[in-house]
Amino acid sequence: QVQLVESGGGLVQAGGSLRLSCAASGSFLSINDMGWYRQAPGKQRELVATITTGGSANYADSVKGRCTISRDNAKNTVYLQMNSLKPEDTAVYFCNALVLVARGFINYAETNWGQGTQVTVSS
Predict the structure, then answer these.
(1) What distances in angstroms separate CA 14 from CA 10, 38, 47, 73, one per listed residue?
(2) pLDDT tens track for 68-96
């Protein structure tokens, strides 16, 4: 069982900053790619940013230049620094991790999601 716990969401004024954190815990062999997704009311969940174990990052066009994803592999934690926040960034932000787990004698790559953290940007 793998748990992803997000923190750092909240209410901020437009132009402000927030830093989200997501820590993975439980029983697993390793964590591969990690990322952040978001879902606004009435909209589909969308990619915000992903990062590989080696630190290569990928961003949605809507957040490029304003957000930075990073990770601490020793702590099994991924971060999302968000600057110059806009009202359209308001959403529930979900942590995602591709985790290698052992099931008997077979290893599986499983996608895991956190419970989400609310980010609200006021104008």
Answers:
(1) 12, 18, 21, 31
(2) 999 999 999 999 999 999 999 999 999 99
